[in-house]
Each structure stands twice: as C-alpha cells, then as structure tokens.
C-alpha cells in the first residue's frame, strides 16, 4: 500500500505542485519571521549586554516616559561622586544622553535618520563598553566641536571640518565635526553626535550639574547584584532606579521590542493569511485528485484494500506533500529573513546576514505548520476517498462529486451564519467599546466560516447573475464558460473562497479607514479654528527657538502652544489613571472650537485647574469643581481643580484616556524644560493667511523638524497616517491574491485535464484555439469575480460593524470607498484572466485526436 | 485503387491522392496509410471497413482535417486541405464538415438544442430555422430539445449528434463508429437516419465501422487492410461484407499489426 501511495504521489506531482507552493509560502513566512526576530533579538541582546554598565543609576521611571513631552528626566551630576564613594565601585561617570534634539547641516537639512529612529547627542566618554570607536579625526574638545557616527556621516555626506547646528532644549549651538566614530557593534539605526563631556551637560541639559544617568563600574570581585544593592542602600529612597547590567540590557531590549514585535506580528499575519488561504487550496486539490481517481480507488477497494487503508494512503500523500513543502518553505524562509535583514540595513539598522540565528524552534514550527496544515486540509478529502465503493471501479465514472446534495452545508452554513449575524448585531448595538469589539471579532470569524461553508450554495444564484450577460456577449463560448463555472459548485465555491477571504479583509478595512478619515475630516472641520498648525508628522516636540521664530514672523497674530504632559490622576472612585494630558496656551478658543458640557476654556486652563471629558468624568465620579490629586514625573505632585467638562467626539484618541487638558502655566510648572509639540497660528488682523503662509515657510526653512499646515494639509497628514494601516492591509491582500491565483490556476488546470475529451470534441467540430482560450478565461474571470463579490459583500458588512465600534470612540462618520470597491472587482477580473493564462494555453495546445481518444 | 467509375468532377465530395500517414521514424516506422488514392462520391453513403489496425480511422481523420498527413494530398471539394494552417482547418471543420463520434459526442453543459446549433453558434451564423425544424423532426428530437445530455439515452444522444452534423448542411459528414456504443435497436435507428440523410436530404456520409450489418446500410463499402484500400463493394449486404471480412482474418497472421488504432 505504501508503494502504491508513493507511486501515486510521484505520478501526481505536477498536480500537487501548486498545493506545495501554498505550503511553501505559509511556512516561508512563519520561518522567516522567526529567524528574523531571533536574529534581531540576539543581535540587540548582545549590543545591550556589551554596552550596559555594571550598574546604572537612572531617574525614576514612574510615569509613562514614552510621552513626547520634550522634557528630559535628570539626576544631579554630583550623584556620580556619591556613588563613587560606595564600597566596591571602581568608577562612576555622569552620563549625558538626550534624544530631544534636531541636528541640521548648513543647508538646513536634517542629518537625523528619516526612519523615525532617534538622533542622540551624548558625551564622548570612552570605556570598554562603547559601541563605537574613533576612526578618523580627534575627540571633541570644548564647545563648538563634535563627532558624528560614520554611518550618518556617510549617508548625509558630512565630512570632518563641516559645521552642523544642534538644536537642543536649552538652545541651538554650532559645532564643527572634528572626528568620525564607527560602530564596532550593530548600529541600531540612530544618528549619534558626541560632545566634549566638559560641555555636554551645559549644552544639552542647560546646566553642568545635571546628568541623564550614572554608569558605575564594579571593582574586581564585586558582582553586579551586590554592587546594585550597595548603591541602592547608599542612595536611600531618592527618586532613582538602580539597575544591573542585565536589567539594563533587558529594559533597553524591551523598549526596542515594541518596534520589533510589530515586524514579527506583521510577518505572522502574513503567515496566517498564507495558511488560511493555503488550506482552501489544499482541500480543493485533494478533493479534485480524489474525484479524478475514483475508479482507481474503487479498484483498490475491489482488490481488498479496506477503508482505513485508502484513507491512510491519501493522508500519507498529504504528509509527504507537507514534508516537501515545509522543507522548501524553510529554505525560502531563510531567504526571506535574509531579505528582511538587508531591508533593515537600508533603513540604517546594520544587521549582518552572516549572524543569522536559526533556533531549534524554527524548523519545528516550520514542519508543524507545513505538515499540520496539509494533514488537516487533506483529512476531509481523505475520508471521502475512503467512502468510494468498490463498484466505482466498474462504473463508468462520471465527474464525481457534481451532484452530491449540499443540504448539510446549507444547514450548517445557515446556523453558523445566523450566529455570526447575531454577534455582529450585538456589536452594532453594544454601547461599550470592549464588548462591541469582542462581538465584532466573534461575528467576523463566524460569518467568514458561514460564507466559506455556504459558498457552494451561492455559486448558482450569483454566477447566474454575474455570467448572465455572457451568452449575449460572447455567444456559445460565453454560455459554456458560465455553465462550466456552475458545473461543480463545490469546486467553484472552494476556489473562490481563497480570494474571498483576502477581499473580505480588504473590504472591511477600507470601509473602516475611509470612515476614520471622514470622521477625522469632520472633526478637524469642527474643532480646528486656527489658520495654520505648525508641528511635525510624528507629533514629536521641537525646540523653543521654533516657537520664538514663528512668533517673530511678520504677520503672525496669535500663537497658541500645545505640549504633552505625562501624568497620573487619582480619581474619586479610587482609580489611579496614568495618561497624557495636553497643555494649551491662553486664548485656546481663538484656534479651536471646543464644546463644553460645563465650564469653559478659561476655567479649564486657569492656574491649578484641569479639564476633562464629560463621559470619563461621569464614569469615575468626577464633578465640576472636584479637586483631584495629580502626579507628574519626578515625584512632583499637586492637586488640580476640575474647571470644565468637554463634550467632544473622539476626545480619547491616541491613548490619551480621559481627554485631560490644562493650562500651559501648570504644565511648565510641573513638567519643566519641556518642549512644544504644536503651534496653532492665526494671521494678524490685516494679513491674509495666503500672505502669511509663504512667510511662515520661509521662517521654518531653518527648522526641518517642523512643517506648516493649513486645514487641508492637516487632513492630509491624518489621511497619510491612516493610509499606513491600509498599506499593510493591501500587502496582506497581495499575498492572499497570489495564493488565490494559485488556487484558480490549480482548479482550472485540473478541470482542463478532466474535460480533455470535451475539449477535443469542441475542437473537432470547429472551436478555434482562440475561442477555447477565451472560454477558459471567462470561466476563470467569473470564478474570480464571484469570490470578489462574496468577499466584498462580507467585507462591507464587517466594515459597517467596525465603524460602529469606532463610533463608540467618537468616529461617527461612515464612508464606503466605492472607488476602491469597484477597483477591486475589476482587479479580480484581471486576476481571473491572469490565472487562466497557463491552463488556457495548455488546453489550446492539446492534440485534438489524442483528446478525443482520451479515457 | 480508385472509384473512378463514380467520379465526375462535381460529383466528388472529397478525395485523396497518394495519402500516406506514418508513425515513428527510422526502423520503427509504421505506415498507417500507405499511398492511398480515394474519392468520396457526393450524395452517397460510403462505409469504410477493415480489421483493427487497418488504418480506417486514420483515413477518416486525415480526410476530415483532424490529422496531418505524412505525404500525399487531400481535397475537400475543390479545396486542398493538406497544407492548410491550423486556423483554416478549424474553420473548414466548423463550416464544411459534420462529425459523429462513437461516444462522448455532446457537451454536457449544453442542452440538446444548444448542442445541435453549437458549430453554427461558434461560427456566429444563424441556423436556417426551416432546415433545423426539418432535421429535428426527422430525428424525432422535438420533445428533447431542452434536455441535457445526461437526461438522454445513448440512442437519443447519438441522434442529437446526428442532428448537429446535419444542421449546418456540411459538404461531408464523418461518422466514426456511430453505433459502437449503442444496443442494436438504437443502432439501427441511427443508421436509418444516416441513410435518410443521404436519400432524402442529399447529404454525403462517410462512416467508419467494423460492424458488417452497419456497413450494409451504405451504398459503397471500402475495405482497408494494412493502410491500403484493398477492395470495394457496391450495394453491400451484411452477409457479403462478413464474408469479405473473414478473408482478412486468414491473411492477418503474417501481417505486422502495430499501427496505432482507433479503439
């Protein structure tokens, strides 16, 4: 029996090729993502482990420090002296390292990375842990000199002797590049500027007495842990975090981890789509192969093979396919990881492909996914194979599986569909985001399953309509292609399902993103009253000079500043909420239209006051006039009185729970040395915005870190940010389409083989090659468009439900991107044409006589 | 060999001169047709008979433009079809030739009426409604026009195939073992229709068969053996054909029978 199985596997290897390709793709993405993340993790672990001091003393990290307030948390530089006296400390150094700077060249072009990685300015202090070494020029001496890392110098064409401007929080200063330092470890993608330690603190932090951390070297024989305990004891209960090298490396890795996790999850998303769509392909291939081999299986049964043996034979074939596919997929995954690593280098993160890490988990995962998916997908067809009766060997086997009733599918599909619809209904009617989102997830999964199950039932009605015009348009060729698509609804349904899954996702996400864009547009129209907003695309803060320069620009009337402030607020219901508040300058009402439930801007922005969202207030028992204890970074605490409650849509966006806002005075008092994140600018009376704009642009020429935007530009900025989400979805769609095309090719190719005699007959009675190709192409198109229509219909339903969830977050507009949807339908027709290329060519090349005589 | 007695230039539906079909090359060459000269008379029912491997199906395929020839020339009416391009041959089959095969004659997704008019639909021509009605009624298919092939009996299917072959009024109808898959009653019906097509509708039919009683319905039987036309018989009877066929069996033992065959 095993021999027969192997023979059969080899005999059908051509027909299994496309299934194998689906397995290869899924496994490649799984393996690629694992190898990539292992490699990156290993590289950075090594980097952080080698660069972390034995013990590090940092300002206490008690509030969300990722908030772009522009303020740098510091420790007194004198702390180094105190720490140095601790028993077991060999040396202690006060580090200065900041990221809240912008460095520009003579032409006012930023020399920082364009990838969102930071530009870091730090003091040049050589230890055995330094990630760089001086490779040309000399170390910076005194103010006005600096060193640059070699990669940045290379990329931005900076040479020794060039002058750069560093815009730091205390102020801008020019430096001459006197040396170039080259990374000895992996360059994590940042731009590094080194200053003389003697001036670094003054220039970057505004005071020689400040440092951003203290690095401590242990004396020989003193362990990191012991030293940490001694340092902690010496510092008492000061607002400091003391970490060993290990802990420091871990926390550095964790802060980088978020970014790497995104890549990993995106890759796994691709793998998931590939697996999901691949399953359809494999199920379909095995079903077709078994249908074609009914007589052969019947003969095996007649010769005495029992059902289990037949089933096992088919499953063995599946496992073989899985093994071959996984092996190739693993190889492809290594290639994919290498490609990603190269891509990261293009972004400035110089990983080395030679240091690729293939952990033991990677091949295990590859084979589990590859073989597992194939086995599971082949199980149903294998069971069906086992039910072939010995009589099938004798009967003149028609194309099997055509007439089998779809009653079970109808019932199961209807039940699952009803459950899914109920879940989606629950989502639409839910009033809490969390429950709506879980209803949505459940509904999406159930309706997807229901559509896949019931797909074959929809083939007849939908394709009757879709292909209805074919006979009129394309004559008998059109009629035959439409009927061919209807011939085996199960097969057509399964083939189209692959495309359906991908397009349903796209449909849903495009409705969601269009609705988000529209909601933001409406919100911007409603709330933004300023002529211009000056900020950057990442909402990161910029230096004070920008604000001063804007204020000094001729024709500028009002400038209202915005800052972010991390804080924790203790609420009357006992909850402590850590969030980010916005600080605004006076006259907010002149640049924004804020709707208040109670109070007004003046009351909210007054000294010692705070404003918040009315719903948040209600949820936590806050009333107008409540006095709330508030903590700011660096153990600064105060009590703020609630001066106003706002009634805004989407006041809780961007992780800013509670919609808290307060006056700029309060922010400057409790988050000192912060930077502005946005400037709302109105033209002075007598100056038109159109006159002001070129002047502002001229002013900002010197500050590449910010741009000036009017309402339309601001909307575009928001759209672009939403588009990033959409690109990801389109990439997923691309993969789903590739696999779906494989599926359509597969189905058509097997159908052509099955219909060899029919094709021979058609050719004999005078059907031209071109007409034959058109017949197959039209069948392919109708299958693809069927999948698209089903998928988009499902996606639209999902999209409307997603929008309902967004509406709970204040994004109340619903927009359906009909343009995209029409484009996708047209695109799916093109996909059909492409998928039919090879099968049609093959059919038209068939020898007429051989085809007629074909058994 | 020729059937010169019957041939006036406009009385010839198709003819071949020196028609040779070889399979393989070098020492393994097998001649399926060995320099055959043949003329098919217009308006007559010609049967082609011969033992397995005699080349009778190959002859039909070459005359019908389904197969290429190794040497020689073939004419359909005044058109030399040897040397025609693939696309021209397809047109020729579509517009000027009707086909009936042993089995699998119909497209399963099309109903009887659609199958009958398929060649004309492919050509984009409108069938002659009167003629279509006449053919449909003659074959007794009126009640079956809306049925799919799977809903028809074997005999009915062959009648639909017959109607398809007739409806475009081709110059020549080729029938390859049209009764091979039918029981004797249904077979007789089909043969009677072919006879009727010749006698009443003025069609020209060439039928390949190995069944002497089927051949007896024809006007002229051509006997093939080893790729040559070895004999012919006018106004055949089943018994006479059977007797003639038996003589082949005697001689067969010494003949290499390796030519690819139709069955």
TrEMBL record, chain A:
Annotated InterPro entries: ABC3_permease_C, MacB_PCD, Macrolide_Exporter_MacB
Keyword Transmembrane helix: yes
Highest taxon listed in the record's lineage: Bacteria
Listed GO MF terms: transmembrane transporter activity
Entries under Pfam families matching the protein: FtsX, MacB_PCD
Cellular component GO terms held in the UniProt record: plasma membrane
Similarity comment: Belongs to the ABC-4 integral membrane protein family.
Listed name of the protein: ABC transporter permease
Organism in which the protein naturally occurs: Streptomyces griseoruber
Automatic annotation (TrEMBL), chain B:
Keyword annotations: ATP-binding, Nucleotide-binding, Transport
One MF annotation (Gene Ontology) recorded for this entry: ATP binding
Stored SMART domains: AAA (SM00382)
Listed SUPFAM superfamilies: P-loop containing nucleoside triphosphate hydrolases
Superkingdom, natural source: Bacteria
Domain ABC transporter stretches: 14-251
Keyword Transport: yes
GO CC annotation terms, alphabetical: membrane protein complex; plasma membrane
A Pfam family it matches: ABC_tran
PANTHER family according to UniProt: ABC TRANSPORTER RELATED, IMPORT ATP-BINDING PROTEIN
Protein name as annotated: ABC transporter
Organism of derivation: Streptomyces griseoruber
Lineage of the organism: Bacteria, Bacillati, Actinomycetota, Actinomycetes, Kitasatosporales
């Amino acid at each position: 029996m095993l021999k027969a199985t192997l023979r059969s596997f080899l005999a059908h290897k051509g027909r299994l090729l496309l299934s194998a390709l689906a397995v290869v793709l899924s496994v490649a993405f799984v393996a690629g993502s694992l190898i990539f993340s292992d490699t990156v993790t290993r590289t950075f672990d090594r980097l952080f482990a080698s660069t972390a001091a034995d013990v590090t003393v940092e300002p206490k990290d008690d509030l969300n420090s990722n908030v772009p307030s522009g303020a740098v948390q510091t420790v007194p530089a004198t702390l180094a002296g105190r720490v140095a006296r601790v028993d077991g400390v060999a040396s202690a150094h006060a580090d200065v390292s900041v990221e809240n700077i912008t460095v520009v060249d003579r032409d006012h072009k930023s020399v920082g990375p364009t990838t969102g990685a930071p530009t870091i300015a730090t003091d040049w202090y050589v230890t055995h842990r330094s990630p760089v070494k001086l490779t040309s020029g000399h170390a910076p001496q005194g103010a006005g000199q600096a060193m640059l890392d070699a990669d940045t110098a290379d990329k931005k064409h900076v040479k020794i002797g060039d002058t750069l401007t560093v815009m730091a929080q205390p102020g801008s200063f020019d430096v001459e590049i006197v040396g170039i330092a080259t990374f000895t470890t992996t360059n994590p993608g940042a731009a590094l500027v080194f200053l003389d330690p003697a001036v670094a603190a003054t220039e970057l932090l505004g005071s020689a007495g400040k440092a951003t951390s203290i690095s401590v070297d242990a004396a020989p024989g003193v362990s990191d842990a012991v030293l940490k305990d001694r340092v902690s004891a010496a510092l008492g209960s000061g607002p400091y975090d003391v970490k060993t090298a290990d802990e420091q490396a871990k926390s550095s890795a964790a802060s980088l981890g978020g970014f790497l996790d995104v890549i990993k999850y995106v890759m796994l998303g691709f793998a998931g789509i590939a697996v999901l769509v691949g399953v359809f392909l494999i199920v379909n291939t095995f079903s077709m192969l078994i249908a074609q081999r009914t007589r052969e299986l019947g003969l095996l049964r007649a010769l005495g093979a029992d059902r289990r043996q037949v089933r096992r034979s088919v499953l063995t074939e599946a496992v073989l396919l899985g093994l071959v596919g996984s092996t190739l997929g693993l190889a492809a995954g290594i290639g994919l990881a290498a490609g990603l690593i190269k891509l990261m280098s293009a972004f400035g993160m110089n990983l080395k492909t030679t240091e690729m890490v293939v952990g033991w988990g990677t091949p295990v995962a590859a084979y589990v996914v590859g073989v597992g998916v194939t086995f599971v997908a082949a199980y149903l067809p294998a069971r069906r194979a086992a039910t072939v009766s010995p009589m099938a060997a004798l009967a003149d086997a028609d194309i099997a599986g055509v007439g089998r009733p779809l009653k079970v599918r109808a019932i199961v599909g209807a039940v699952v569909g009803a459950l899914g619809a109920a879940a989606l209904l629950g989502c639409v009617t839910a009033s809490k985001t969390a429950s709506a989102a879980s209803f949505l997830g459940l509904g999406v999964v159930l309706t997807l399953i229901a559509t896949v199950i019931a797909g074959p039932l929809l083939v007849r009605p939908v394709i009757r309509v879709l292909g209805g015009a074919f006979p009129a348009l394309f004559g008998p060729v059109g009629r035959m292609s439409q009927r061919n698509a209807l011939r085996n609804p199960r097969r057509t349904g399964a083939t189209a399902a692959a495309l359906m899954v991908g397009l349903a996702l796209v449909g849903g996400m495009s409705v969601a993103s269009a609705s988000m864009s529209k909601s933001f547009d409406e919100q911007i129209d409603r709330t933004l009253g300023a002529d211009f907003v000056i900020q950057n695309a990442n909402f990161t803060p910029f230096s004070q000079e920008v604000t001063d320069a804007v204020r000094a620009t001729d024709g500028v009337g009002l400038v209202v500043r915005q800052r972010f402030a991390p804080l924790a607020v203790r609420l009357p219901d006992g909850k402590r909420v850590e969030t980010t508040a916005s600080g605004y300058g006076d006259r907010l009402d002149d640049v924004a239209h804020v709707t208040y439930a109670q109070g007004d801007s003046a009351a909210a922005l007054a000294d010692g006051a705070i404003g918040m969202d009315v719903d948040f207030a209600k949820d936590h028992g806050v009333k107008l006039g409540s006095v709330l204890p508030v903590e700011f970074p660096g153990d600064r605490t105060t009590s703020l009185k609630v001066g106003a409650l706002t009634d805004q849509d989407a006041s809780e966006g961007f992780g800013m729970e509670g919609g808290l806002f307060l006056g700029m005075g309060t922010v400057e008092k409790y988050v000192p040395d912060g930077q502005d994140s946005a400037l709302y600018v109105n033209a002075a009376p007598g100056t038109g915005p159109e006159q002001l704009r070129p002047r502002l642009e001229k002013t900002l020429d010197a500050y590449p870190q910010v741009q000036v935007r009017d309402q339309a530009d601001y909307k575009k900025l928001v759209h672009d940010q939403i588009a990033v989400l959409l690109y990801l979805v389109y990439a997923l769609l691309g993969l789903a389409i590739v696999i779906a095309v494989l599926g359509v090719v597969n189905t058509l190719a097997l159908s052509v083989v099955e219909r060899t005699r029919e094709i021979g007959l058609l050719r004999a009675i005078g059907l031209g090659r071109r007409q034959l190709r058109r017949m197959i192409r039209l069948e392919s198109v109708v299958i693809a468009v069927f999948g698209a229509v089903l998928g988009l219909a499902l996606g639209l339903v999902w999209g409307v439900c997603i929008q309902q969830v967004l509406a709970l977050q204040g994004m109340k507009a619903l927009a359906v991107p009909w343009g995209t949807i029409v484009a996708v339908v047209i695109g799916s027709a093109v996909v059909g044409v492409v998928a039919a290329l090879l099968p049609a060519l093959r059919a038209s090349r068939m020898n007429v006589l051989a085809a007629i005589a074909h058994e | 060999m020729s059937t010169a007695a019957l041939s006036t230039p406009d009385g010839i539906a198709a003819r071949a001169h020196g028609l040779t079909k070889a399979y393989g090359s070098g020492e393994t060459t097998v001649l399926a047709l060995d320099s055959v000269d043949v003329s098919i008379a217009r308006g007559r029912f010609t049967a082609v008979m011969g033992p397995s491997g005699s080349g009778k199906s190959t002859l039909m395929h070459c005359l019908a433009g389904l197969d290429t020839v190794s040497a020689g020339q073939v004419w359909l009416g005044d058109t030399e079809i040897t040397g025609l391009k693939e696309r021209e041959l397809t047109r020729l089959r579509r517009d000027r030739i009707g086909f009936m095969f042993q089995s699998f004659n119909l497209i399963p997704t099309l109903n009887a009426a659609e199958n009958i008019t398929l060649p004309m639909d492919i050509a984009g021509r409108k069938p002659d409604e009167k003629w279509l009605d006449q053919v449909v009624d003659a074959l007794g298919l009126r009640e079956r026009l809306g049925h799919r092939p799977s809903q028809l009996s074997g005999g009915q299917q062959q009648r639909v195939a017959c109607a398809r072959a007739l409806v475009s009024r081709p110059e020549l109808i080729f029938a390859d073992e049209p009764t091979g898959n039918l029981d004797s009653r249904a077979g007789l019906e089909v043969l009677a229709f072919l006879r009727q097509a010749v006698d009443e509708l003025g069609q020209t039919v060439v039928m390949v068969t190995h069944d002497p009683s089927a051949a007896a319905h024809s006007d002229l039987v051509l006997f093939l053996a080893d790729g040559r036309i070895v004999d012919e018989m006018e106004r055949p009877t089943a018994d006479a054909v059977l007797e003639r066929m038996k003589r082949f069996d005697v001689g067969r033992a010494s003949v290499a029978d390796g030519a690819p065959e139709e069955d």
